[in-house]
Amino acid sequence: MGPGLGCCLLLLLLGSSEGLGSSGEQRGPEEEEDPWGRARYEALEKHLGAVGAVSKRYWQLLACKVWQESCEEEGAEDVEGDEPRWSLPLVGQDYLEVLSAWYCSFSKCCVTGDCRVVNNITGLEADLSRQLHGQHLARGIIIQALRGFLQSPAPRDALVLSFHGWSGTGKNFVARLLAGHLYRDGLRSECARVFISLFHFPHPKYVDSYKAQLEKQIGETTRLCKQSLFIFDEAEKLHFGLLDAIRPFVARHDRKAGQRRSIFLFLSNLGGNTINEVALDFWRAGRAREEISMEFLEQRLRMELLEPAENGYARSPLLEENLIDFLVPFLPLEYHHVKLCARDAFLARGLPYTEAALDEVARTMVFVPKEEKLFSAQGCKAVSQRINYFLP
Question: Which stretch is the leader sequence (predicted)?
C-alpha cells in the first residue's frame, strides 16, 4: 500500500473513530474509567481491517492507472482469489482520478505516454479567439479539422495541415498553442516533435543521412504514442528527399494498419504574396477582411503553390497527390492587430499599459504597401521586444 494514500485513509478513519462507543447506550463504570475499553478496541480493529482492505484496493487501482502493464495480472488475481471485488463509491473514483493525474504531472506514467494527452479543443478554441488576432479563416479551419479528426475513434489517415502566410502572422504561435492543448506538456511532450529545416537539416549533401534519421524518429514516435504531433517549420526549405521520407506516414494507401493517430503541421511563408493580394483587393474594394472566404482564397493559393519553383515543398507529393487535408491561410496583420499584440505582450509580463503606449509600439513597426501602409511587414514579430523601449 502506498504510504501517502494509506495515511490519508487512516487519518480519515481516526477522525471518525471519536464517535465509537458513543451510540447513546449507557456505558458501565469500567468503560467510563477506560475510554479505550475492549468494546471500542474491537470496533476500531474491525474498522481498521475494513479500511486496510479498501485502501489496498485503492492502491491497486491507482497502480493500475499508473503502471498499465500490471492491470491484467492484478485483474486475474481478483477473479481467482477469495477476496471480494470492491466497488468504489463515486467520490473514491474521483480521488483516484486526481491521484493518478497528480502522479502523471511529474512522471512518465505509462509506456506509451498516452496519459499526457488532454485534447482540450474547447480551451484551444477559446485561446485562439482571444489571442489570435485577425485570422478568422485560420481559426475556423483549425478547430473544425481538429475536432472532426479527434472525434473519429480510429482515423485511417493522418491529419495534415499546411499553414501559409507572411512571417509574424501567427503560424508558430498557433502551433505552440495547439501542442499545449493537445498534450499536458505541450511541445515538451515526448509525443510532439518539432523540426526546423535549416537547423535540423542544414547541409544538402547529408540528405540521405537526414532522411534515415527522420524516418526513424517519426516511426519511433508513432509507435510510442497513440497520438503524435509533428511540426515542420520553414517547410518550403525542406529538401525534396526529406518530403519523400514523410510521404509514407501521410499517404492514404501507404499507411500501415497498425499506425496510430498522427497530426502533421507544415509551416511555410509560401503563398504569402497571394494571400496578401487578396486581402489588399478586399480593402481597396471597401470590403471587410472577415468577408474573405476560404472558397475564394483556396484556389488562388493552391495555384501559386503548384507553380514551378526551386523549393522542394512546392514540387512535393504532399501537394501534387493532394495529401494535405487543409491549406490554412494566415492573413497579413493591420495596425489595430499590432496594437492587440502589444497589449498581449504587456499583459503576459504583468505590466500596465495605456492606449498611448500601444500606439507608440505599433508606430515603430514597418507597414506596407508603400502607398497604403496597411499591413505590418513583420506581423507581430518583435512586438514583445519593442515594448522594452517604452518601459519606465
Answer: 1-19
- Specify the DSSP class assigned to residue 20: T
Q: Give residue 370's domain range.
A: 336-389
Structural contact between residues 350 and 391, judged by C-beta atoms closer than 8 angstroms? no
Write b or e for each residue in 150-188: b if 16 or more Cβ atoms lie within 10 A of its Cβ, otherwise e: beeeeeebbbbbbbbbbebbbbbbbbebbbbbbbbbbee
Shared domain for 368 and 321, answered yes or no, is no
Say yes or no to pLDDT of 220 above 90: yes
pLDDT tens by residue, 339-371: 999 999 999 999 999 999 999 999 999 999 989
Nearest to 157 by CA among 264, 225, 257, 250: 250
Distances (CA, A) of 121 to 3, 146, 150, 172, 183: 37, 8, 9, 18, 11
Q: Is 64 in contact with 88 (CB distance < 8 Å)?
A: no
pLDDT of residue 237: 92
Type of residue found at 320:
E
The dihedrals phi and psi of 108, each to the nearest 5 degrees, come to: -70, 120
Q: How, if at all, do strands 326-330 and 159-165 pair?
A: parallel
Sign of CA dihedral 41, 47, 50, 54: negative
Same domain, 149 and 230: yes
Rounded-to-integer distance, Cα 11 and Cα 330, Å: 57
**Given 294, 313, 332, which residue is the final one in a domain?**
332
**For the whole prediction, is pTM greater than 0.70?**
yes
Average pLDDT over residues 4-13: 42
Same domain, 248 and 377: no
25: DSSP letter: P
